[in-house]
Structure formats: structure tokens, C-alpha cells
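Action item from last meeting closed. Structure (83 res):
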């Protein structure tokens, strides 16, 4: 299941300000990351996933859509399933 950054934060019960303080950034910077998570560095994204106690991949990657994109047809081939 793919979570947004905001959903992951809400599930953790933390506020935007709390997350920003833990990450050592201004709350406005964190708020921007909730809207545009691709602007977060990989290191920060991994730290965020530890803070909210969610799997990094479940927040920042959608495995199903990645497989569909590789195949180009929206279908997962048997070769991709075997990987």
C-alpha cells in the first residue's frame, strides 16, 4: 500500500512542526515536502520513514506502477514477476 508523506505523518500521530524539528528543518520546508516529496533528499526521506515508523518504499515508491511502467502496457509480465 502506497502512503503519501502526509498520510504517514498522520498515522504516526505527529504534527508537521514535530517532524520538522526532528529533521532539523523549518516547518515551511517540511510542509513543502508534503506537497512535493520528490524534493526531499534520499537521506532525509529515509530518516522521515524511520521517524514515522513506516517502510521507506511504501511511502516513496509504488512498486506496482514501476512494474507497469517497465512493461509499457500496464500489465506485469511473467519475467517481471519472477524478479
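Sequence:
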Amino acid at each position: 500500500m502506497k502512503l503519501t508523506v502526509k498520510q504517514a505523518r498522520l498515522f504516526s500521530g505527529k504534527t508537521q512542526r514535530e517532524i520538522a524539528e526532528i529533521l532539523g528543518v523549518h516547518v515551511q520546508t517540511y510542509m513543502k515536502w508534503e506537497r512535493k516529496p520528490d524534493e526531499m533528499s534520499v537521506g532525509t526521506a529515509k530518516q522521515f520513514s524511520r521517524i514515522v515508523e513506516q517502510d521507506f518504499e511504501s511511502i516513496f515508491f509504488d512498486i506496482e506502477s514501476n512494474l507497469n511502467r517497465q512493461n509499457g502496457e500496464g500489465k506485469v509480465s511473467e519475467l517481471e514477476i519472477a524478479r
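Note appended to the action item: Confidence is low (pLDDT under 50) at residues 65-83.
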